[in-house]
Write a structure and sequence with these properties.
The complex is a heterodimer. Chain A is α/β, with parallel strands linked by helices. Helix content of chain A is about 35%, strand content about 20%. Chain A starts with a helix and ends with a helix. Chain B is about 20% helix and about 25% strand. Classes of the chains: A alpha/beta, B alpha/beta.
Amino acid sequence: MPRSRAALGLTAQAAEGRFALQRCEECGQVQYPPVDSCRACLSGELLWTPMSGRGELLTHTKLHHSNDPFYRERLPWRLGLLRLEEGPVVVAHLHQECPPPPAPVRVTAKLDKAGRGVLVALPTGDTRDMSTDPRNGEFSCDPRFRKVLVTDGKSRVGQALVHELAEAGAAVIWVGQAEPWKKYDGQEAVGKLPQVTVVPLDLTDERGVMRIGAEIGARVDILINNAEVHRTEGIATRAGAELARREMEVNYLGLLRLAQAFGPAMRSRAADGGASAAAWVNVLSVYALSNYPPHGTYSASKAAALSLSQCLRAEMQDSGIRVMNVFPGPVDEEWNQPMPPPKLAPERLARDIVLGLRDGVEDLYPGDVAREWVERWRDNPKVLERELALEAQ
Amino acid sequence: MNDLLQDLLAGIAADKLRVVDLTHTLNASFPQLSLPPEMGQALPYRSEEISRYDGRGPAWYWNNFTLCEHTGTHFDAPIHWVSGRELPNNTVDTIPPEHMIAPACVVDCAEDAERDADFLLTRGRLEDWEAEHGRIPAGAWVLMRTGWARRVNDPVAFQNYDEIGQHTPGPDVGCVRFLVEERDVLGFGTETIGTDSGQAQRLNPPFPCHYYMHGAGKYGLQCLNNLDRLPATGAVLITAPLKLEEGSGSPLRVLALIASDP
């Protein structure tokens, strides 16, 4: 467990795929490990600052023994001391292809199986593919060779996800379909992929979700929950709660039903050797962070889903299943047609989700709109709320 | 006990009268009426456990279920349609209970619907039917038998959508006006998801069965089962909707009493 609140800062940065350390605003010293006040001048003005990732490997060692069952199964394990370009000397896990010291390395921050931020050193050059080292594969949730469930294969995002996963080398892709009598363009092409098995899945149907969970739950390695109901209504634009209830039934309660049907089996298979259960992905929305009034009830349902996914993540944490929340801005799909560009292409969203799985991140803000939105939200959530209210007028 | 009631019970006990269940089982995959996506939608049938002899209730099993007034085998009251909105006793809680037991005339259109999913029942066909079976009595149900119930386990075939829309059989305008204006029937029943045909929004007026039947205080029955077990005439239907305040319709158990030897 982290010993201080400051130490969780590294985890929070790694959760979004960033390697950052605290830099002292007074004297410029970069801090490692994270602290509450500057080691050099005792100032409390410490700002999390992205690191270049360039470092030099000073020494390395191989762990041949561990009391920790996780490491014991994965011995020998390479560790090293390295000096960052920014100054500090840090401890990091070493990718097996890192040359012996002294050697330049690329330093990244990853979440380990327990969800803690740790430093991982890679050889310089393009080694996005963490899985070339089976041990470093522990930091990734690469869909290659894995069995994936996409909960809605009909929508444009769902179809793009299935194609992207097939491209990424997923071994099996189950594709959920609700209301089989409604057909969507492109649906047939998805069904024809050799990896794909279409399964009836309607997140409003508790018994149906439990049934599919019983049938395939013990084999699902990655679950991507993209099923949603999305309409463009606020409170005053639509009488009654019928529509809002349908959004909640799928976007919020649907996640709860899925988590109860699939969560336990996935948790128990997280350390299942090479073909382990690895990740749970919720496709949320940036509107989960702050209500976008023209899509007001939808925003509320996504905020509820975000809160529930935090509960899911906490419950999954000790198992090693990564819960990744995805916060796209407006996606170029049916119910966003009246919105002006820029809109996120479903194909781009799908690609970013697969990259996010490979990188093992926990929170993903795909596209410029989402990144700009989350920056504004971080800067001042109250100001963002007011801005969105003005935009809605 | 009154002799009439005694005879009825004796008839059932001696298997001289049979009770036929015209109702489909409600489950989560039962095909649901589906409107254009920007409109309000009818909830499909869903059931969630409250407890099953477990920590949530150790000695008992029960469920909460949700559904629309128009889910599964169901009854349409006149207030369902705008044409019937001002009529007296137009809701399921106010319709006279005497109307809940009534004779039925069954018009066999199974071969026609097999040939053409958009088959429309006409006045001419009803006149042919009357020539064979006699005049349709006032206050009777007219049931359109199409064989559609056989599709119920295949929701895609039951709904029968293509890029144009839904293709299911139903009555045409002349048929409905004849039944309402010249025969004063109690209502119209079908095996499909609506009393109107799948393409009835293209008729004039759109959805004529809803428009004229409910406008005249008549009722509707939808998603009926086992119509092939009924004689053309002579069956008596028991159709008691739930007593929902201001209800526009209701799922219900539809029973038919028939004589076992015709």
